[in-house]
Each structure stands twice: as structure tokens, then as C-alpha cells.
Amino acid sequence: MNLQSIKTLYLAEMARSLRTVLQSIVSPVVSTSLYFVVFGAAIGSRISEVDGVSYGAFIVPGLIMLMLLTQSVSTASFGIFFPRFSGSIYEILSAPISYLEIVLGFVGAAATKSVILGLIVLATARLFVPFSIAHPLVMLLFLVLTALTFSLLGFIIGIWADGFEKLQLVPLLIVTPLTFLGGTFYSIDMLPPFWQSLTLLNPVVYLVSGFRWSFYGSGDVSIWASLGTIALFLGAALAVVNWIFRTGYRLKP
Amino acid sequence: MTLTTPSSHTLAGHGANGGGEPGTPVIHVEKLSKIYGDGFQALKEVDLTIRRGEIFALLGPNGAGKTTLISAICGLVNASSGRVLVDGHDNVAQYRQARERIGLVPQELTNEAFTTVWDTVSFSRGLFGKPKDPAHIENVLRALTLWDKRDNRLLELSGGMKRRVLIAKALSHQPQVLFLDEPTAGVDVELRREMWEVVRGLRDQGVTIILTTHYIEEAEEMADRIGVIRRGELVLVEEKNALMQQLGRKELTLHLATPLDGVPATLAGHDLALAEDGHALVYTYDVTRLDEGTGIAGLLADLEATGIRVKDLHTRQSSLEEIFVNLVRGNA
């Protein structure tokens, strides 16, 4: 394992985030705060409790998930897309490093950034509503696994995309809608039966539910279904990345 | 531009990388073929050996396969068949050992516009798995006259400087072999001369250099050996001096009033050949040694003494350009 190379890629990616600290860190915090003002305070005051928790506290895990998914995908996809776009990818491909090491550098940095952002949003949320975390270790596990999985998804998108439009396409048309429809702002019990069944096909439901379980000890689906889903996702993402490097897809003719 | 690197320090890889004796093979390409996904065959069974310490120019028109050959050696393109050894290491099975010995300067100017010269060159070294070595980075930057620009962001640099930054990046990990893909494409005359100086300086530091070009002048100016590539085939690999000798040869054709059966004994001292069924005598001489005299005056005097009358005469000289054009058209 070429630790020096992984470290170099990882630190360069982290430095890129720090260079754009306003965009990277401040804007997710601001937008999360806005969600709290609008959904937590303005609308939430008219909703009493969901699953025995105040509405403001109820949406905290979902909001962190929403931010985690979008940030992981966008950071990782841009991270690998930009060198492809600028042409500087030649250097990475001609370096004495394995594909696994490339992935560890890029995806590791994107996941780290997302986890840090998740914790910042968690701290920000605490300023608005009081809540406690029932299973902190499970919460961290979910945070890390989700950041990792969706950073891998972002990495795949960054390799697949051949323009900036496509880079935006998946996050905009798939990730964000699935997250909004994934029980971020409501319990799926609140939906009519038909929509409830349909919603169970949405994988994000399992992530949000599992994450919420780690906070309040209850979720829409069982914690094991949630853990199983994230494991399945992670496995699928790893398989696709493996295939990309084996075939040289979009990287090596 | 002069290279001001202290003599104790070299830009080329030695020691751990095991730089060998000058002149020994450092890159060995064996029956290398590449067929792209769309069926286009970019390389056809290319065999090539690069010697340690030389400047090798790969000459060919656009689309001949120069970049594909370089890319296949450096690991940017998967070869369809054949193999490449870098300092004895297979570039697929032992890609780590092979690649750490190579520095690549691409044809297109690419860069991360917002990073500084120092950071991007240091990044390259780390990416290649080498521990930090600010002294080496400083030497590289000084050698390429980039030291004063080390804290500038790349977007503030001129095109010529950006090209030098790419060279600095490629030298950051002390490679044994440096690939320069079209180092002077789209560069004005002054910058081209400057780049030649840089390349020569690097060679003096012990770096083996392989450059591609479609400028004959560049190959002539720089190279120790020249390879000509045409439609994916390496059609000629030759010492430049040998090529230049062919280039330097000039022919004087003397059309005779009466045909001869053979070269008369009185003219045996001259390098003469009979042509056109005895209607002409062809005299070959070397224009690179004009100082020693062409021998034409003596020849003409001897012809007169022998009583051979000349109707007409003309001279012709083959140029590298002519050799090259013939080669790439496939007439050779």
C-alpha cells in the first residue's frame, strides 16, 4: 500500500475544500438553519409531535441525512470530474498507485468532509431545538457508512459524467427528490396506505429511518433493515467502482 | 537560459531507482500494438529500445501514433498486445516500479489554476509516493527558472511558464526517463529555442529524454537518435548523425556527349558511378566537409585530360525533409 500517495491525494482534496471554505462549510450550515426556521419554527409550531418527539427535533436526523447525501455526492463527483475535465488526470493515472489507492484518496477525503459537515449541522441544530441521541455509536456508524457510500456514488458519477450538466443531473433529479420523499420531514405513517407501500421502495427511507432510530430509538422501519440497506448500497457502489477500474471505463482507452 | 543546479545534485533518478550505465537500454518496447474500441489501429507491432542518457525524437505527422505510443508506455492507454519494460520492469505486471521511473509531460497544458507552483510540484512528488524533499523541489524550480514564481498561482503564469511547470512536476519524483509530448507545439520561435535549451540542460543532468514532434527542425536540433512513425508503424530508427550524413550527401550528375562503357582508369581516384546506360557520370560528395574541398575542380580537370566531353551538369541534395516525406508517404 502506497501510503504517501494516498495521503497526498487525500490532503490535496481536503485542501480544495478548505480553499472554498465558504461554499463547502458555510452554505450547508446556512441552508440547514433556514430549514429549521421554516419547517421547525414556522410550520413545526402547528404540528404537535411525531412519534413522541417534537417536530423540530424529529426533522434533525432527516436534515443531516439530506445534507450528508447531497454533499457526499457533489464533493466526490466534482473531485474526480475536475481533473478529468482539466486534463490533469494524466498525472494520477501515470503515477505508481493502484486503483484502490486512488479511490481511498478521493472518496476518503469526500467522506471525511461530509462527516465533518454532518457534525457541524448537528451542532447547529442543537442551537434551535433540544434533543438527545440515544445511540451515539450507531449514529456515528450511520454517518460514516452513509458518507462513504454516497461519496462512492459521487465518484462513479464524476467518472461517468462527460459534462457539467450530467454532473448535476443525478444529484438534482435522483438524490434530492429521493431524500425529500424519504421521510426527512415526515413519518411515513402520515401518508395514505398506497403511498406508504410505494415509499418503502425508496432506499433513502431506510437510511433516514435508521439514522432517526439512533437518535430517538424508533424509526419507520427496523434498524436491521436500515443497516442492511446501507450495506447493500455500499456493496453495489464498490462493485461498480471495481468494474470501472477493471475495464478502464472513461479513464483508460 | 542556464541550468544552475549544484553539481552535487542531479535531477535524474539515481540511487534507489538504480540508474544504470549511460547507453544501456532503459526502455524496451516489444511488438506493441494498440487497437482502439472503434477498431482504429493506432500502433502496429512497434519495437523500440531507448538508451539511457539519450535524447530520442519520435517524429511523425499528426495522428501517426506518437501520443498513443507514449501513453501506452506511461500507462495511460492499455496496450492490445506486446509489452513494455522500463529499466527491466514490465509496465503492467510491475507498474509501480515501472511508473516511478517515468516522468510525463503531456501535450495539452493542464493545470489546477488556483494552486501555487510550489504546491502543485510538491503534490506531484507526493503522488508518486516520494517523501517530501524541499531541496529537490527547489533545484527543479531553479533549473527551470521558476524559483521566483514558486508562490504564484498557475493562472498567473504565461504559456511558456506553464509548460515548464509541467516539466517540473514530471521531474519532481526524480524519474530516469522524461517523456515530452510535443513540447513546442503552438509555441513561438523564441520559446521554442528556450525549450530546447531546457531539454539539453536536462540531458546534461543525466535524464533520458523522449520527445515527440512533427517539426523536422526540432528533431534535427535536439535528438541523438530519430524514430519516424507512420500510421502506427515505426518505419525508421537511426542515429541523427547518420541521417545527417545522408542529408549532407550531394550528387553531381555529368551528362556526357558520348556514352562510356565503364569509369576510365584515369578517373578511378574519384567517387564516380556510371548512370543512364553510360550517358552520365554521378559524382557524390559531402557538403558537410566543404572546408576540405569538394574535389569538383580536380574532377573536371581530369575529365578534360581524359578527353571526356560534358554536355550538361546538375547537382541535387536530399534533405531530411525529403527523406521524411518519402517515409511518411510510404515511398521509402
UniProtKB/TrEMBL annotation, chain A:
Keyword set, alphabetical order: Cell membrane, Membrane, Transmembrane, Transmembrane helix, Transport
Primary localization: membrane
Membrane topology: Multi-pass membrane protein
Spans traversing the lipid bilayer: 20-43, 55-82, 102-125, 137-161, 167-186, 221-245
GO molecular function: ABC-type transporter activity
Cell location: Cell inner membrane; Membrane
Domain spans labelled ABC transmembrane type-2: 19-248
One cellular component (GO) term of this entry: ATP-binding cassette (ABC) transporter complex
Sequence similarity: Belongs to the ABC-2 integral membrane protein family.
NCBIfam families with a match to the protein in the record: PRK15066.1
Official protein name in the record: Transport permease protein
Organism: Billgrantia pellis
